[in-house]
Amino acid sequence: MRIARFSIDGNVAFGAVEGDQPDQLVLDIIKGIPFADFELSGTKVPLSKVRLLPPVLPNKVVAFGRNYAEHARELGNEVPDAPFAFFKPSTSVIGSGDQIQYPSFSQELHHEAELAVVIGRMCREVPRDRVADVILGFTCANDITARDVQRREKQWARAKGFDTSCPLGPWVETDIDLARAADLTIQLTVNGQQRQLGRTSEMIHSIEDLVVNVTEAMTLLPGDVILTGTPAGVGPLNVGDEVAVTIEGIGTLTNKVVKRG
Ligand code: MG
């Protein structure tokens, strides 16, 4: 099931996305929230009539760096032995169709297409064989990075945590299991031109590894998100660009870059 979060007439709700034709998708409004047992209401609205919101409101986004060897090398970095994580704050999250605001303190904004894991239940110290139980589903992410600031500052809080630096969406796909998630095509275009193309099978540390690694340190809450790293091909974004992340079996996350007003 594809679960979207949206607003219509000032109300916010979750809905199950139905249909195959991109311009004819319909939302069946969910009674309740997708983190517990829920029912479909049967009340349907065309997706074109609503505003998509980020599919979840995470308490935290935990992102992993250099989890694809070719990407680590393209920026002149060593491939790390162990996974290493950083945070993107909840205020960095935007949905598909929202604008990425180019921050005033950077001259080098980069895109990073990533598979995002959406956590479905509160969990801590998750053993490998229980990882599937704590995942609600998967969505697309763009780990927008102020590369010049990342080089300049030891901690990445500003470089990767500024407002609008974490587009997520368009929805959460819940029908992808761990085996399939480990071998999906991940692609990014800027103004229709392909910049990144990889497969999640190229990850150094698996989704299971990453969930184990995060949860041995901290409790994850329903709606929290793990970003799994980006394949090679990262590059600059400019004001006016339209950037799109497409992951096989999930969908396309599209955002336009604007100057921060
Ligand atoms: Mg990244």
Automatic annotation (TrEMBL):
Presence of keyword Metal-binding: yes
Rv2993c-like N-terminal domain sequence ranges: 1-55
Signal peptide: none
Domain Fumarylacetoacetase-like C-terminal: 60-258
GO biological process: carboxylic acid metabolic process
Domain of life: Bacteria
SUPFAM superfamilies associated with the record: FAH
Isomerase in keyword set: yes
Keywords, in A-Z order: Isomerase, Metal-binding
Pfam families attached to this UniProt entry: FAA_hydrolase, Rv2993c-like_N
Alphabetized GO MF terms: acetylpyruvate hydrolase activity; isomerase activity; metal ion binding
PANTHER family in the cross-refs: ACYLPYRUVASE (PTHR11820), ACYLPYRUVASE FAHD1, MITOCHONDRIAL (PTHR11820:SF7)
Protein name (Swiss-Prot/TrEMBL): 2-hydroxyhepta-2,4-diene-1,7-dioate isomerase
Organism: Streptomyces griseoviridis
